[in-house]
Amino acid sequence: MIDKTPGKVHDATVTSTVSGLDETFEVQYYLPKNYSDLYKHKVIITFDSQDFFKYGQIERQYEKLYEVGEIERCIIVGIPYPSVEWRNRYFSPNGDKHKQFVQFVATDFINWVDKNFATLRTGTARLLFGESLAGSMAYSVALQYPTTFSQAAAFSPFVDDAFIEKFEAQPMLINLNLYHTIGLEEEDFTTIMGNQADFLTPNRALNDYLSGEGCEYEYVEMDGGHIWKTWKPEISTILQYYFE
User: Fold this and answer.
1) Confidence of residue 194 (pLDDT cuts 50, 70, 90)
2) What gap in Å lies between CA 151 and CA 216, rounded to an integer?
3) Contact (Cβ atoms closer than 8 angstroms) between residue 146 and residue 173
4) InterPro entries recorded for this chain (predicted)?
5) What is the extent of the structural domain holding 215?
6) Residue at 3 is within a domain
7) Phi, psi of 97, rounded to the nearest 5 degrees
8) Tens of pLDDT along 200-224?
9) If residue 156 lies in a helix (H) or strand (E), which one and from where to where?
10) With 90 as the cut, is the pLDDT of residue 40 above it?
């Protein structure tokens, strides 16, 4: 039984039917304070959802925007990560479970969302949202299913040559509306895995490619590093960008 108490973050589970991914995954969802099944809602889908709620306070930012009439009705759903190792296997474009997990999001997960809540079921009514590897995950789903999910925002996504090639291979890139940020201090930093990394250079390479394509595309270089202190202030801007 789905708990539809508004104004709080709920936990639930969704079971995969994807071949080779016979697992049950933890999910989270937030129904706004004025939620009612009488109204259709747009859907914000977050990867690393526990961080979006804890550090980004995305539900509070949404409520403030809605209260002053600057955003449409939305629900927030998401998939948390149980461990850093899990995140590398499922969210990373190079992870051994990534391909199947993208399919899970586009089938079992979104079907669960639409079955249980009053939602608008079009690509332009859904936003995929993530940071770091979760941002790469958001872009991966949009690239694979550009009509089901035509909007994706990524804070400081992991990018390599193979990931850029996925954009180059997508003939329906014009259907997408992408928002892309990177911190100016991300040229040399330590990841949560303890490795030194340069995210700024490959993200600029991705920007160079996407800027010449026909898709709707917003690119922002921000002061700051690969941390929520940098990303959090940009959440309201992105919600307004897609749902104002």
Assistant:
1) confident
2) 9
3) yes
4) AB_hydrolase_fold, Esterase-like, Mycobacterial_A85_antigen
5) 9-243
6) no
7) -110, 5
8) 999 999 999 999 998 999 999 999 9
9) none
10) yes
Any domain includes 156: yes
CA distances from 18 to 9, 24, 63, 101 (A): 27, 11, 35, 8
CA–CA distance from 126 to each of 31, 212, 224 (Å)?
A: 15, 25, 28
64: CATH = 3.40.50.1820
Q: Is 225 helix (H, G, I), strand (E, B) or coil?
A: coil
Q: Report whether 201 contacts 156 (CB < 8 A).
A: no
Concatenating the DSSP letter of every residue in 66-86 gives: HHTT-S--EEEEEE--S-HHH
Cβ neighbours for 24, distance < 8 A, ≥ 6 positions apart: 13, 14, 15, 16
Mean of pLDDT over the chain: 97
**What backbone torsions phi and psi does residue 193 show, to the nearest 5 degrees?**
-85, -5
What is the pTM (predicted TM-score) of this model?
0.97
Q: Is the alpha carbon torsion for 143, 55, 190, 89 positive or negative? A: negative
Structure letter (DSSP) for residue 170: -
Residues 6+ apart with CB under 8 A from 61: 235, 236, 239
Number of domains in the chain: 1
Alpha-helical (H) ranges within the chain are 49-54, 58-67, 84-90, 98-104, 110-116, 133-144, 161-168, 200-210, 228-231, 235-243
- Would 65 be classed as within a structural domain? yes
Look at residue 61 and tell me if it is in a domain. yes
